[in-house]
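Narrative summary of target 7.
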Amino acid sequence: MFKLGNVAWFLGRLRVQFTLYIAALLVIFTALVLAFNWRGQEEIVLDRLDANVSYVAAMTAILAGDRLQEGDVAGLTVIVGEIVELEDAMSIAILSPDGQILVEGRGLATAEDFRASPDAPLGVQADRINAAADVIVGGAIVAQICISRALQMPGAAAGGSILGNAAFGEEAASFHAVLERNLLIGLIMFVLAIPLAAFFINRTTRGISSVTKAANQMAAGDLDVEIPQSGTGEVAELQNSFRVMQTELRDNIGKIEALAYTDGITGLANRARFQQALEGTFRGDHVAAGAVLMIDLDHFKGVNDAHGHRFGDRVLAAVGTRLASLIATEGAEIGIHNRILARFGGDGFALLVRGAVDRQALERLSDGIIRGLEEPFQIAGMRINIGCSIGIAPIDKGARSPTQLLQQVDLAMYSAKNDGRRRARFFSAEIRAAAKRNASLESDLRDAIRTDALLVYYQPKIRCDTLAIAGAEALLRWRHPTEGFISPSEFIPIAEGSGLIADTGNRVLAQSLNEFRRLYDEGIDLSLAVNVAALQLQRADFVASVVGALTGSRFPPDRLELELTESTAILASERPDQLMAPLRELGVRFAIDDFGTGHSSLGRLPSPPFDILKIDQSFIADLADSADKQTIVRTVTSLAHGLGLEIVAEGVEREEDYLILRECRVHLAQGFLWSPALPFAEFATLVRAMRPAETEPAGASSGTLGA
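Modeled conformation, tokenized:
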């Protein structure tokens, strides 16, 4: 039977009392350990959060400096938005020096009345952590970053431990597990006495010091500190949780740093950064005003082919530097300040202009860019000429997405290239319609090439002194099955842009050589001029294809003239020994076509060694009525005579113009004054009837496939 006297006796025993004393000491000791651990964990979390908030403030100040220097408030808004999305208990405000709010962002886990403020005390407060950083540009403070991080969920009671707050559930859960574990250890100590209790407490808590040390190092800015696996049980879980938080913190900061995308070659923004900014103008129902300019370098592939890609990268870097300077200068003069210049890829650059801007301002900006890039570059002791073509698409002209807008500006840029390069074109409905038509014509042109439906016509070349036929120019014609004859000015650019011109040019060469061989066999000795496209010239088998066509036709090589436009001649001048010397040894002559319409200078004529110079028809039309044109023609012909070049004038339609050309001692002429281009049968009938003079060497003709 249970009696109180027996209980008193039992409690009075020394062993029991000692056991109770030990038990009390263990309980007190365990309680103290738990209390200190609780407080230490709370300080660790606060230190980590304080360091995190300060680091985010510093990083945001760096990013804000770059954006504010460019006037990119919208881009800065995007950055702030992504930060508060990653840290949803955080509120960020960016203030101007006069206290005006430039950008503000508030996380989803912050209360409605929770705001970052420049007047708030910095560091850890009762319910929040505050941090601030100055935005410095050029040595001056241009803004202030204010960040406040909530320590309590919206609606939670003020005060109390943060480890009990739902906003820190992961930390709280981990530490509650530690508490339960220590209580269990205390119970075991109670049973096994002080030595065993001390052993298990030491074994259980030995990993906490490594976490504390790591937290202090992270608070000092070392996010890569390693935490050794020195604990077991709940302490190991605490260490693992700390590692997970450390990894997430590094990833989040890495994402923030990755927002500053930069092109490695030019130092400009890259394509991803540009598209991010462009997408920012299409957010929501309202599309911001502005424009996109696509700036594509002309014939840049020739620079890479001639000098290598490393040298090409140096040219791109120089172009990027000059572009940025040109745009800054021109933009300041016409009031364009909010802009982003990026290297869009390859040899293309893109400029986003944000804000209301009129057509005249964009035209002036484009003209300044084109003129500025025409100035030669001096790189590694070499003089490099680079031009550009520009497409312009206003943002508020019907584009419903960034993708559609980029398609529009691309079409405008290619329209500028097709119109002769080194010019700017605005996107329009006509350009869109032309693009659709070009796509249709390209498909039909492929069919025409596959079925040999393209025609070769010949325009006679007339001696200016005797009016005898001296040769002919081979011209490409296309009779469309439904539209009739398509103008060469329309289908030749399509053939060039699609790469079809190379195979087409080879076919024209082979066919015209075979047909002129038939005349040669009749005793009619005429020279034949055939245009060579740039793509033909760039092919490795160019020389072999010409030699093969001559061999197959048995046409005399010294009666063949290969004509290069000025831009194509530049490519030839970079590799004259490879491209021209083997053919010149056979007797083939070379001519420069459309002289005066490109960007080569008179000084280019002797090198590489050309034989014939053809004056463009734009200088011949109405020659008798223009004193300026007469001066140009006389100057060119005088120089050509001095260099021993044969001179050909194209597009002669009036007798009075012909008389001036004869006075200038132009050797050959062609044009509607004598005959249009004719099919071979009609041309052969004409020359058989006129029988060209044979006392002098036959002249040569030059021209393009589609002149």
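The longest helix spans residues 14-69.
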